[in-house]
């Protein structure tokens, strides 16, 4: 299998997870399929790629921007990094959706937050945290 093929499969797998998260009921079986099926598969793929390529990338590491750049100059390192993003962003999206459901946030309000998480990761998380703190904060009990 080529890097391009694996890239396509990983992207399609992640997109399937996002569509499931947005349109399906959040039954326990759906969440389990997302968390352990899709995020799990992406995580295993990431782990395999890291084991195969990370330690063999000359000049690669995390101590400088030059070392990180070297990691992404390798197709194996770049693909591993991309799958890392796909897995973590979807995991965070699942977490956001479950927490948002718990506080009664409508799916309509969740949709742009989840879309931002899909596209820009931490921006979506920030949107969720801000909306949770402002719109869905637990009422404080005033003492008289």
Shape: globular
Let me know the average pLDDT.
92
Question: What structural category arises from helix and sheet content?
Answer: mainly alpha
Helix content: over 70%
Alpha plus pi helix count? 6
What's the N-to-C terminus distance? 69 Å
- Would you report the number of β strands? 0
Spans of at least 5 consecutive residues whose pLDDT stays below 50 are: none
Largest sheet: none
> What proportion strand?
under 5%
Radius of gyration: 18 Å
Q: Could you spell the SSE succession in H and E letters?
A: HHHHHH
Notes on the protein architecture:
The chain is mainly alpha-helical and 144 residues long. It contains six helices and no strands. The protein has helices at residues 3-23, 28-53, 65-73, 75-102, 107-120, 122-135. Helix 1 packs parallel to helix 4 and helix 5 (107-120) packs antiparallel against helix 6. It is globular, with a radius of gyration of 18 Å. The termini are far apart. The mean pLDDT is 92.
Secondary structure topology:
Blueprint (H helix, E strand, L loop, with lengths): L2 H21 L4 H26 L11 H9 L1 H28 L4 H14 L1 H14 L9
């Amino acid at each position: 299998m080529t890097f391009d093929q694996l890239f396509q499969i990983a992207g399609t797998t992640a997109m399937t997870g996002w569509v499931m998260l947005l349109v399906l009921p959040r039954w326990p079986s759906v969440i389990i399929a997302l968390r352990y099926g899709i995020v799990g598969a992406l995580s295993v793929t990431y782990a395999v790629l890291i084991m195969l390529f990370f330690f063999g990338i000359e000049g690669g590491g995390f101590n400088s921007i030059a070392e990180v750049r070297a990691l992404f100059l390798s197709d194996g390192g770049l693909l591993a990094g991309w799958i890392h993003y796909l897995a973590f962003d979807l995991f965070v999206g699942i977490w956001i959706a479950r927490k948002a459901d718990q506080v009664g946030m409508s799916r309509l309000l969740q949709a742009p937050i989840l879309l931002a998480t899909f596209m820009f990761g931490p921006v979506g998380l920030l949107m969720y945290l801000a909306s949770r703190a402002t719109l869905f904060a637990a009422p404080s009990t005033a003492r008289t």
